[in-house]
Design goal:
Blueprint: H1 5-15, H2 27-31, H3 38-47, H4 49-56, E1 63-67, H5 73-82, E2 87-92, H6 97-106, E3 115-119, E4 133-139, H7 152-162, E5 163-174, H8 193-201, E6 206-211, E7 234-240
Parallel strand pairs: 1-2, 1-4, 2-3, 4-5
Antiparallel strand pairs: 5-7, 6-7
Length: 243
């Protein structure tokens, strides 16, 4: 993913002039948009995007950072949700060639006109000039930072600093067994929920809510998440920067 940090700086002035978000959002209509790709509709089947967007509370006009953007599935959903008056910063670093190609193809579509791609390290995800964000999303990639060369304490502090007071950090990830901590990020692509929560709260965040719409108690949580025998147990957490 090619860095667009210079473009990001041009967004900063407009960032603070964004209109007040509306009080309602039709998330189902976003998912039903006829110009969404068939591949994304396939991903919808395991992501439950209407509930996920609803849990984030994303609204038109918001400024959002999408961490670990990958191929851009979640980035595009957030871009559609914030609308043309909103701003999306899509961060990733050392992503796969396949994900990079998919993201770059996606960036050519109308749905991504309000997106700035940032090829930056996870522990330094944003230019200093970009701050006062409404929302940060980190979907199904936090576990990967446990085996990458990432200072997660520094990363979480940077995310905390980037949000406006009262801003939200939403993290969804694949659940590991109790006691696994951060040790199975590379082997199973999972992370223990309590370990993740402890790291994030150490940066100053407060847990505001959790959701169970991606939970599956039948998942033994001891296998890789790719081509699982049963649907993967996944947690979704909402953290808030105190006012």
């Amino acid at each position: 993913m090619k860095s667009m940090n210079s473009v990001a700086l041009a967004f900063v002035a407009a960032l603070f002039a964004a209109p007040t978000p509306s009080l309602a959002q039709d998330y189902a209509a976003i998912i039903a948009a006829p110009d969404r790709a068939d591949a994304d509709r396939q991903t919808d089947q395991r992501r439950d995007p209407v509930k996920l967007l609803s849990f984030t509370g994303v609204q038109p006009g918001m400024a959002v950072l999408d961490m670990g953007a990958g191929g851009g599935y979640s980035t595009e959903l957030m871009a559609r949700a914030v609308g043309p008056e909103g701003k999306i910063f899509a961060q990733d670093h050392e992503t796969s060639a396949r994900a990079k190609e998919r993201f770059e193809t996606r960036m050519k579509t109308d749905a991504m006109k309000n997106v700035v791609a940032l090829a930056r390290p996870f522990d330094d995800p944003l230019p200093a000039e970009v701050n006062n964000l409404d929302l940060i999303t980190f979907f199904f990639f936090y576990h990967d930072t446990t085996y990458m060369t990432v200072d997660r304490a520094a990363m979480n502090k940077k995310l905390f600093a980037a949000l406006k007071p009262g801003g939200l950090l939403i993290i969804a990830d694949h659940s590991a067994k109790a006691g696994a901590g951060t040790t199975v990020g590379k082997t199973l692509h999972r992370i223990e929920e309590s370990a993740l929560r402890s790291e994030v709260e150490a940066a100053g965040f407060k847990l505001a809510a959790s959701a169970d719409f991606l939970r599956n108690p039948e998942d033994p949580r001891d296998e890789r998440v790719f081509q699982p025998k049963v649907p993967v147990d996944e947690f979704v957490l909402k953290f808030q920067k105190p006012n």
